[in-house]
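Table 4 source record.
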Amino acid sequence: MRTLLITGPGGSGRTTVAAATALTAATEGTPTLVLSADRTDTLGAALGVPTGAAPTPVLPNLIAWRPDAAAGFRDDLAAFQDRAANVLDLLGASRLDAEEVTPLPGAEELALLRALRDAALSERFELLVVDLPPTPQALALLALPEELRRYLRRLLPPERQAARALRPVLGRLAGVPMPAEWLYETAARWDVELAAVEAVVADRSTAVRLVAEPGPAGADAVRTAGLGLALRGLRTESLVASRVLPEAAGDTWLAGLVAQQRKALDEWQETYAVHTAPHLGRDPRGPDDLTALAVPAVNPAPAPVEWPVTDELAEDGGNRVFVWHIPLPGAIRDELDLIRRGDELVVTAGQFRRIVRLPSALRRCTVDGAALREGELRIRFTPDPELWPRET
C-alpha cells in the first residue's frame, strides 16, 4: 500500500485537497482510505458524507475515517491503571473513571498515528491518504515515533533488563515494591507500535503532498516546509496550489492578487511538480466540487531522499576524509547548528531539529568541519586512529 501525507499551512485547504485526492484515486479504481484527525468534521463537509469514529463508506473504493481520540485515550488510561494497580495502591491514588476522562492536547494526533499504523497493516486498501495538521505540527507529529523510541531506549535500555532478577531482593531490602515487570512489557509494546508507525513514515513509497495558497505568505510557508521535510528525510510528491484565481484582465482589483499568485507559482515550479486547484468562488462541497478542482490522484513515487557518505581525500591530498551529504534546501548558514553526542548527531536547521544516529563508519571518526553548499550540508569526518583499523 502506498501512503500519501498531505499538509501545508493552516487554512490552505489541506483537508479539501486530501478529500479530492482520495476521491480521484477511488474514481480511477484504487481502493482508498482517507484519514483525518480534525475534531470538527471538515473532511465530511468536503466529501458530502458525515465521517466519524467508524470507517465510513463514501463511494465505491473510498472509505473515510476520523478516529475517536477520546475513546482511544480512555482505553489507554484504563489499561495503564490496571497495569500500575500496585503502585497506585501504594501511593494511595484514586483511580479515574472512564466517564470523567477527557483527552489531553495531542490526543487527536496520537489517535491518527495509531490509525495510520492499523491502516498500513490492512490489506484492504492500495492507497492511504492522510490529512495531517498544519506543517509545523505535522512535522512534530511525524517525528514523534522516532523520538519516543529514542527516549525509551535511553530510559529503559535493553541491557538493564538483566537486573529484573534482582528486583524482588531489592524490594525486600528497601521495604517498598520495585518497578514491576509491566514497566518493561509496556515499554516493549510501545516500541513495537512506534516502530510500526515509523516504518510507514520511512517507507520508500510514502510521500508528502504540500498544499498552499500561492502568494507571499504561502511562498514563505512552502520554503519553511521544504526545509523541515528534508531534515526528516521525507519526499515531496507534489505541491497543490489551492484557490488559484483566473487571470484578470485590464486594471481590475484582481490583477494584483493574480500577479502575486503568478510569482509564487513560477518560484514553486522550479522545485516542485505543481498542480493548480482553481478557486470555485465558494467552499468545495461534495464530489462534484472536488472533481472540479482537478487534483491528481497520485504522481509517480519521487526519488528517495538519500544522505550518502562519500570517501574522499583531504584537499591537501593527504589524509582520508569522509563527507556526509545532507540535503537541506532553503537552509540558512547562520541558522544551522551541529552537536556530536557519542554516536548521535544533533542537527538544528532554523526552527527544526533532529537527532540522527551516525552511520557505522562515521562512529569511528571525529568531526572535522562542515559547510553549506548549494542547499546541501556537507559534514567532514576524519578517521580516529584509536578506533580505525590500521592499514598494512
